[in-house]
Amino acid sequence: MTESSLTTSLASTSLWRNLRVLIVTSCTGEKRFKPTSQLTLEDFKDLARLQFRSNELAEFACLASQMYTGLQHLRLMEGVELLRQSCGKKAVDLLILSAGYGLIPENQMIVPYEVTFNIMKGPEIDEWAEFLEVHQAFEKAIVGYDLVFLLLGEKYLRSLRLPVETQTEQTLIFLASKTSASYVRHLTAKTFVVTLSNLEAKHYRYGLVGLKGFLLKRFAESVSTEAELLHRVYEKPEVFTQSLERIPTKLELPEVTVNSIHEKKVGNNSKEDKFIPIPDLPPSPNIHLGMQYFIPEWDDRVDPGYDFLKDVSTPNRNLYENDVYAHEIFTIPNYDGILVSKVVVEDSKTKKAKINEIGIHKFIHFQGSVMGDCGAFGYFKEEVPPYNTEEILDYYDSLGFNYGVSIDHLIVGQFSEPGIRETRYSLTIKNAEDFIQKHRIGGYNFTPIGAVQGWNPESYAKAVKAYIDMGYEYIALGGLARTPSKQIIEILKEIHPYLTSRTRLHLFGIARINAIPAFRHLGVTSFDSASPLRGAWLDPKANYYTLSGKKHAAVRIPFVDKYSIRIKHLLNNGFSRDDLLLLEQKAIQSLRKFDIGNLSIDETLQLLLAYDELLELPRDGKVDPKAKERRQKLHKVMYRELLQDKPWKYCDCKICQIIGVEAVIFRGNDRNRRRGFHNTYVFYKQFQEFLQSEKQHEH
Ligand SMILES: [Zn+2]
């Protein structure tokens, strides 16, 4: 920011600091709690009965701002938070129009209820709204506010029974559907209606269901980068719509906040992950220990001198010595620690010898925490693990690991049958006991971690309890990488009573941003997963992450000269190498030209697809024409979206800053793994922002 623009925005700060903003939103059907005995319409009709029933439901009581978990509400709350960050906590007030409680402030304690205007007929709405005194409450509530935003669906808007008394110096902005715009009438205040339909949902690329909240959030993002905006909208409400067109670059709130918890909904057209609700248990006693992300290591290095324009590697480079890890590219690592499995250490003789010589930290060029485990997935088919406790203790110790995990045996697939599972379970527990005893006697420096396996909540919990009794202060749950989050939650709930304020709890192989709030609440203090990294080349569609939660597909432009099965097939079928090379180069060049603004989206897309349409993988030597058509259709849509959004231009990570558009080309280790580094950056940032937002909520 230049000095002069700083002065301007400071000057206007004092202007809009006095601007009072009110937001009125509707209640949503999705709520944080859904007890079967929630309040119904009948309960709201009689005050004594309402009180009695509310007491019955007291355990589900929470602030109105936190009760609703529908998309509109979640996005809106993120917007409100942002506005408060920009304009001060008191600058914005929020009221919720509840079909049960009437018009209520966000900080009112309420219990779950199931009443909505949406299923009532016109006269019913009028009658019930009159009982709730919605009209009078609204008229009274807006007095003294300069700028009022209303995010109400048709039936909620009807319940206001406009007009109400307003002032000429007030500005009211309605976000409403086309059909409901007619309810907005005869207001003295400056009035502006932003009409929303499927067309707008498509334009803003957000589902109609939560669109009002999403747009308010988007507006708040613009306010956070342009201080005068709020005042300009107050003067000229049309500016509101214009402000939505700007693509926010910074200060974007993550989709993950502690409030972003809502139930799974089928058929929702929004692209984001659905949040797992936080179970109704007190926070785990170890919550003060924080939460850490470990990345599993698997030779995730790139050539630092790779020439992207010529597509050539550094000549004569030594893979171990010249290549760099993500943490050598980023100033701050995108993880709190690294997990190295014994099977990975030993996957080549040279590597094993090198690590034995210089130790684990030096080998991976990382001075932070390194956790070691045996990599149970490497031997799960064996009857017993191929290691014994003494050798493992020495291994961790001599290589300098900070944490070492006891020897476990996976209980998965055919090995989770009754009879086999019990054997593996007791063996894992016995190993853990042996491990901590010998660790104590041997006076080792690393922290021992007891690995737990199990097949249901009870078996996991029983082992955790036993480990705590053995003296473990760090316990890791294994075998859950493919288990649905809901089942993991059930296991964690069962473990919850045994955790102490000193117990650390690790989840192996799980990084699900949508479950992190719930996991953390239930006592998970660390987890590891390579999926953001490896998704960059293993996920066919969602392989480039963005902070908004949206994931893009990188453009596949495989090397003609690195014979892949696709290229081989084409050459065998009469395509000339020169023709293919031309298509390949044109595709790459088109992206680079597009990047600097020298080629339109359509022209670029045409050149990308000209190469891409040849690339459907043959089965038994032949390409299925239907599969080919599917691929073309899909890629056309995905690549267009990528070109429209240009996410690499808005990412502030080191990778995108340095290699730009090359990061969204699916092509070889040096681009794909770098894109994985970018994904890890995005994931870790979302995770950090969640921890941050949690802190803010505590205060
Ligand atoms: Zn990036």
Note down, in words, how this protein is organized.
The chain has 699 residues and is α/β, with parallel strands linked by helices. It has three domains: 9-30 and 70-107 and 116-244, Rossmann fold (3-Layer(aba) Sandwich); 336-529, TIM Barrel; 544-682, no CATH class. 44% of the residues lie in helices and 12% in strands. The protein has 30 helices and 22 strands. The strands form six sheets. Strands 9-12-13-14-15-16-17-18 form an eight-stranded parallel beta barrel. It has a six-stranded mixed beta sheet with strand order 4-3-1-6-7-8, with helices on both faces. Helix 19 (420-442) packs parallel to helix 20, helix 20 (457-470) crosses helix 21 and helix 23 packs antiparallel against helix 30 (668-698). The protein is globular and about 80 Å long. Mean pLDDT is 89; it is low at 1-17 and 248-272. It binds zinc ion. The site of zinc ion has 6 residues, from helix 29 and helix 30.
